[in-house]
Design a protein that fits this description.
Elements lengths: L1 E5 L6 H12 L2 E4 L1 H13 L7 H10 L2 H7 L8 H10 L3 H13 L15 E4 L3 H5 L5 E6 L2 H14 L6 H16 L13 E4 L5 H15 L2
Parallel strand pairs: 1-3, 1-4, 2-3, 4-5
Length: 219
C-alpha cells in the first residue's frame, strides 16, 4: 500500500501520516526533511538563501545519513528552518536533485531500523502529484492560513522557542504564495486526491475520516 499525504505547512500532514503509518504498519517518509536539510546547511554556512547554485550543490551531495544527522539540529524544525526549506524547494535544480531519492523509496521502503516494509506513507508537498502519482490513496490536507499559523505558533511555544504569531502568520502566507507560484510544480491537489479541510476538525476527527476512506477502498 502506498499513501500520500500532501498539503500546505501546518495543516496536519505529519500527525495524520505518523498515525496512519503506525496503524497500517507502513514505512514513513517525511519528504520535507530533504529540503530542510538543504536549507539548514545554507543557514549554518551563512550562505544567502537566494543562492540557487549553492543550494543545488548541497542537494546533489545530500545523503540519507547526512539528512538524519542534520535532523537532530535544534533549528531543523524551527520557523527559520521551515522558511529555508520553502525557499530552496522552489529551485528546479534542487527539486531535480532530490526527486530520485524520494521516488525510489516507494520501490524499496524500509523502516527506521532498515528492515523492509510492505508499503509507505509519504508525508509532504507534491507527494501525490510528482513524487508518487501511482499511489493507491492520496490525501490533500489543508486549513486556513490563520489556523495553520496558530498551530505552528503553539508548537513553537510548547517547545520553549521564541515566536511571534503575526510573524508566523506572515511566514505561512509567504510560504503558501511561493508554493502556489512555483513554475515547475505549483502546489495543488492531485486530481484523484481526497481533500480534507482540517480548520474546524480535531486530530481524532481527521484521523477517523482518513481511516474511513482507506477502509472503504479496501473492503
Amino acid at each position: 500500500m502506498i499513501i500520500t499525504v500532501d498539503g500546505p505547512a501546518a495543516a496536519g500532514k505529519g500527525t495524520l501520516s505518523s498515525r496512519l503509518a503506525k496503524k497500517y504498519n507502513l514505512a514513513y517518509f517525511d519528504t520535507g526533511m530533504v529540503y530542510r536539510a538543504v536549507g539548514l546547511q545554507l543557514l549554518k554556512g551563512n550562505i544567502d538563501l537566494t543562492d540557487a547554485v549553492a543550494a543545488e550543490k548541497m542537494a546533489h551531495e545530500l545523503t540519507f545519513t547526512k539528512m538524519m544527522k542534520l535532523s537532530q539540529d535544534k533549528d531543523f524544525r524551527s520557523a527559520a528552518g521551515g522558511n529555508a526549506a520553502s525557499v530552496v524547494s522552489s529551485y528546479p535544480g534542487v527539486r531535480s536533485q532530490l526527486l530520485d531519492m524520494q521516488r525510489n523509496f516507494a520501490k524499496n521502503p524500509v523502516f527506521a531500523d532498515g528492515t523492509p516494509a510492505q508499503g509507505v506513507i509519504y508525508d509532504g508537498r507534491d507527494t501525490g502529484t510528482v513524487i508518487c502519482p501511482q499511489a493507491d490513496i492520496k490525501f490533500f490536507i489543508t486549513a486556513s492560513s490563520e489556523v495553520r499559523a496558530k498551530r505552528r505558533y503553539d508548537e513553537f511555544v510548547a517547545k520553549g522557542m521564541a515566536a511571534d504569531y503575526k510573524q508566523v502568520l506572515a511566514d505561512v502566507v509567504a510560504r503558501d504564495e511561493r508554493d502556489a507560484n512555483r513554475k515547475d510544480a505549483p502546489m495543488k491537489p492531485a486530481e484523484d486526491a481526497f481533500i480534507i479541510d482540517t480548520s474546524d476538525m480535531t486530530i481524532e476527527q481527521v484521523y477517523n475520516c482518513a481511516v474511513e476512506i482507506i477502509e472503504s477502498k479496501y473492503k
